[in-house]
From TrEMBL:
Keywords: Acyltransferase, Transferase. It comes from Hydrogenophaga atypica. CDD domains: NAT_SF. Gene3D superfamilies: 3.40.630.30. GO terms for molecular function: acyltransferase activity. Residues 1-20 are annotated as: Disordered. This is GNAT family N-acetyltransferase. SUPFAM superfamilies: Acyl-CoA N-acyltransferases (Nat). It holds the Pfam family Acetyltransf_1.
């Protein structure tokens, strides 16, 4: 059966979160963005808040998280959350350095889009920053378009926040 999804990148398993995964995702993202972009510890607060809200307010059938695992280690994730009845929000796409360049980010986004379509959303939005070039390339390849930009000072840096959207 053709699911419309790209084949799984070799050696990875996508699964639902298990106890302990969310803490690893928060820690992994905080460390990665500190190392790669010089973001400070306030970014960790943001991802911890998003994660806690997802756990507390989880709506089965409308929301989902995929955890990418390889050799027993969490190496990526993506979340879909309900923004409203017609709009899903893609959150916290994350691919660990050890899993870069293997198509995992594209695979995670494809799963998120397939889920959102199957849940009868008509639109998906996401917020990112312009310095996250690799992630933005994935979004553009999937057909997302830039709908808003805003200069802000967050995580110890001057950044350009962006809202991207895809309608179907």
């Amino acid at each position: 059966m053709n699911t419309g999804l790209p084949p799984d990148p070799s050696g990875f398993t996508l699964r639902a979160p298990q106890p302990g995964d969310m803490g690893q995702i928060v820690s992994g993202q905080a460390r990665l963005y500190a190392q790669e972009y010089g973001w400070d510890w306030t970014f960790e607060a943001l991802v911890a808040e998003i994660t806690a809200q997802f756990i507390r307010n989880f709506q089965p059938g409308h929301e989902r998280c995929w955890v990418a695992e390889r050799d027993g280690q969490v190496v990526g994730s993506v979340f879909v959350v309900r923004q409203n009845a017609e709009t899903a929000k893609l959150r916290m796409l994350y691919v660990d350095r050890s899993a870069r360049g293997l198509g995992l980010g594209r695979h995670l986004v494809a799963h998120a889009l397939a889920f959102a379509r199957g849940a009868n959303y008509r639109r998906m939005e996401l917020w990112t920053n312009d310095v996250l070039v690799s992630a933005r390339r994935i979004y553009e390849a999937e057909g997302f378009r830039l709908v808003e930009e805003d200069h802000h000072h967050s995580f110890g840096k001057d950044l350009v926040g962006q809202v991207w959207a895809l309608d179907w």
